[in-house]
Write a structure and sequence with these properties.
Helix content: 40-55%
Strand order of the largest sheet: 7-6-5-8-9
Number of helices: 16
Order of helices and strands: HHHHHEHEHEEHHHEHHHEHEHEHE
Largest sheet: 5 strands, parallel
CATH class of the largest domain: Alpha Beta
Number of strands: 9
Number of domains: 3
Shape: globular
Distance between the termini: 22 Å
Structural class: alpha/beta
CATH architecture of the largest domain: 3-Layer(aba) Sandwich
CATH topology of the largest domain: Rossmann fold
Strand content: 5-15%
Length: about 400
């Protein structure tokens, strides 16, 4: 019999794994928003990282759900004795470095969006830096994010390395190693960063080198923020509209391909994952087989713009749908090794190709994709699709909290 999620949350907290404990509690609240035990546990987690005001609100919510709970009442009483930290929001003197997550292109973009939201709610100036660990960089120390998008601020990592008397969080970071990558990223002091660890920090420079999604930050949005209480989809669109501004040169290929191949008639965009996705998604074959039924509902006169990293699936669908299939001439693989992991791949070109396909999909009349893929999940939130025009097969990866990456061996 599976162990109760709240028991697992308590065990994770006792072991010092606050992110896992929080995710387990949030999952309980998704099913039961007034679960007093989960609210109380979240209050304890918030208090543990010095987030006094959120902790107070969580304890109060727990008491409303279960007024007679003596433990929660005692937790609230003890919390009221703790001095309120001086607010640092809006000072403009502190920064959040957003390093590359180091995986797929849109997975890294989703990490940027979550970190940008974290920067906003903690009053920090965001500084992106996709360094040498980025799978879409040019192998140098320059910020690969800026190869594809306009900067999210005027500050660079080099600027931060010149700040006198700067302090850093986590403590593994210093002026002289800001350009280094993968420092105790998965194990050791300062590893597996999570949004909660950044909520009440006053250091000059905070550095995030781990995946923090919008879904992880959203519950901590204060009432003063315009996205407080909004849906995850609304929050994503707010962040995308504000920060995700593609460079003209990054969209040039997309614009040209649209004019030459898709303009002037309705079309459906379809994203099919293959290659290395089979390793992380045991249901991938079943999902891919279901595309046939989804496409059967599309007007047969429409063209099908196919986004796929897998040459085998491109061939299969072309054999089935003939000249209705339209694809860009991008780098693909016929193995279970992802394109971005192939030693022969041109990494910057790969990034441009992924961008071109996604922005072409946004011009489609309909979209069908794999919810477990960040490519499909991002396309679903980057456009305000009319009802019924965007179909994700499975739950969107962007709407879930990733417990797996916080489960330590």
């Amino acid at each position: 019999m599976p162990e109760n999620p709240l028991s697992l949350a308590v065990r994770a907290f006792t072991a010092g794994n606050l992110p896992a404990s929080e995710i387990l509690c949030r999952d309980v609240l998704d099913a039961d928003p007034h679960n007093a035990a989960a609210l109380n546990m979240l209050g304890i987690i918030a208090a543990n990282v010095g987030a006094v005001e959120p902790a107070e609100g969580l304890f109060q919510a727990a008491l409303r759900a279960e007024p007679g709970n003596a433990e929660t009442r005692q937790n609230l009483a003890l919390l009221k004795q703790v001095p309120r930290p001086q607010s640092t929001v809006g000072t403009g003197q502190r920064y959040l470095v957003i390093k590359a997550w180091g995986f797929g292109f849109w997975s890294d973009v989703s990490q940027v969006l979550g970190s940008l939201l974290l920067a906003e709610i903690t009053g920090r100036i965001p500084v992106t830096h996709w360094g040498k660990n980025s799978l879409f960089g040019d192998g140098t120390d320059r910020d690969a994010f800026r190869l594809y998008f306009k900067p999210v601020s005027d500050v660079t990592l080099a600027d931060l390395s010149r700040i006198e008397n700067a302090t850093f969080f986590p403590a593994k970071w210093r002026k002289d190693n800001l350009f280094d990558e993968d420092i105790t990223k998965w194990q050791g002091s300062g590893s597996r960063a999570a949004a909660i660890y950044f909520l009440n920090k006053t250091e000059t420079v905070a550095v995030n080198d781990f995946h923090i999604g919008v879904a992880n930050v959203a519950p901590w949005i204060p009432a003063s923020h315009p996205m407080h209480g909004q849906s995850l989809t609304a929050i994503y669109r707010y962040l995308i509209d504000k920060y995700l501004r593609p460079l003209p040169e990054a969209l040039a290929a997309s614009d040209a391909f649209f004019r030459d191949n898709l303009q002037g008639a309705p079309f459906v965009a379809v994203h099919v994952r293959g290659s290395d996705k089979i390793v992380e998604d045991r249901n991938l074959d079943a999902v891919n087989q279901s595309y046939g039924a989804a496409l059967a509902a599309i007007d047969p006169s429409w063209r099908i713009f196919l986004l796929t990293d897998d040459e085998n699936w491109r061939t299969r669908l072309t054999d089935r749908f003939g000249n209705r299939i339209v694809t860009t001439d991008c780098q693909r693989t016929d193995s279970t090794t992802g394109v971005h992991y192939l030693p022969s791949v041109n990494r910057v070109q790969a990034g441009m190709e992924v961008m071109a396909d996604a922005y072409l999909a946004l011009r489609a009349d309909r979209f069908i994709g794999n919810g477990s893929s960040n490519v499909s999940a991002m396309i679903a939130v980057m456009k305000n699709w009319p009802p019924g025009d965007c179909t994700l097969l499975g739950t969107s990866a962007l709407m879930q909290r990733n417990l797996f990456i916080h489960v330590k061996p």
